[in-house]
C-alpha cells in the first residue's frame, strides 16, 4: 500500500461561491425571507458544526467494552467527552456481536448480510478480500480527504484496500498488539500527518474479557487504561490545533458475558456510543430523549454527515441527528 509522505501537497477544493439573495423584480426581498432574516438577527446562535470543508472525524473503538464496565472504570477522558457531548449506554451492535463483522458494519453503515464479512479471523490477511461495499475510508478518500487507521488485531487488514488509506498500522498475521502500542502509532500519525478521517481500534478490553471474564477487576483496569489512551489521542489532536474541528466518536463492537460474546444476549448486544466535537450538544443522554435507538451502523452515517459525504444507496445506518445542535442536511 502506498503511503503519502508528510511533504506531499494536499489538494485544496475551492469554496462554492455565495448564492445571491432571493429577490422579487424591483429588488425587494421576499417577505418570508425578510422575516426569517429578522428572526435570525435577534435569536441567539447555537454553536454550529465545523464546515464540511474543514471537519474531521476520529472514531475510537474499544473492543469488547460493555457499558457497565466503562461506568465502573476510572475514565475521566471518556466522562469528559460525555460532558461535552451526546451519549448513550444502550446502543446496539450487530446481531452477531463479534469483532470483524461488527467493525465492518461500524465502518460501512450496513449489516453483515450486506457487507459480506461473516468471518472473525485473519484468514484473508494479505489477500485482496475486502467488504462488498465502500468503507468510510474509501468514500473520504474519493472526496480528497486523508485517511488513517491504527488497529490492534491482524484481521483489520481487511480494511487496507489499496487506494483507501493513506497511513495504516495493523500487526502481522496471527498477532495482536497492546492498546499502548496502537496509541503510540496513532499519535505518531496525528502528529506527522493530521489525517482528516481516522479510526483507532484498542483491543485489550476484549482480550482481557476472554482471559479473565467480562466485568472482572482485570477488565475494569484495562478499560481505565483505554481511557488514558483516548486521552493521549485527544491531547495529540489539541497539540496539532485540530481538536476543535474534530468530531470524536467512541464506541465498541460488542460487550460480553463470562469469557465470551456473541448472539442476542443483551450483555453482548449493548455498547456505549459517545460523540463530542463541533456542533454537538453538551451532556445529552440520548437514551432519555427518544425511543429511537442508536445502532453501530449509525457511526458510519454520522461520520459521513459530519464530513459532507453522501450516504451510499442502501445504507442501513442513519446520522444521529439529535446529537447535534441543529438538524444537519444530507447532501
What does this 3D model show about the protein?
The chain has helices at 31-42, 67-72, 76-83, 99-108, 112-115, 136-142, 179-193, 204-212, 217-239, 266-269, 297-307, and strands at 56-62, 85-92, 147-150, 167-169, 197-202, 246-251, 270-276, 284-285. The chain has 331 residues and is α/β, with parallel strands linked by helices. The protein has one domain (57-323): Alkaline Phosphatase, subunit A (3-Layer(aba) Sandwich). Helix 4 runs parallel beside helix 11 (297-307), helix 7 runs parallel beside helix 9 (217-239) and helix 8 (204-212) runs antiparallel to helix 9. The chain is globular. Mean pLDDT is 87; it is low at 1-48.
Order of helices and strands: HEHHEHHHEEHEHHEHEEH
CATH superfamily: Alkaline Phosphatase, subunit A
Query: What is the CATH third-level topology name?
Result: Alkaline Phosphatase, subunit A
Strand order of the largest sheet: 4-3-5-1-6-7-2-8
**End-to-end span in angstroms?**
31 Å
* Residue share in β-strands: 5-15%
Number of strands: 8
- Number of separate domains: 1
Number of helices: 11
- Provide the CATH top-level class: Alpha Beta
Low-confidence stretches: 1-48
Task: Say what oligomer this is.
Answer: single chain
Helical/strand content category: alpha/beta
Mean pLDDT across every amino acid position: 87
Bin the helical content.
25-40%
Globally, the shape reads: globular
Q: Taking Cα atoms only, what radius of gyration do you get, to the nearest Å?
A: 20 Å
The CATH architecture term is 3-Layer(aba) Sandwich
Tell me about the biggest sheet?
Answer: 8 strands, mixed
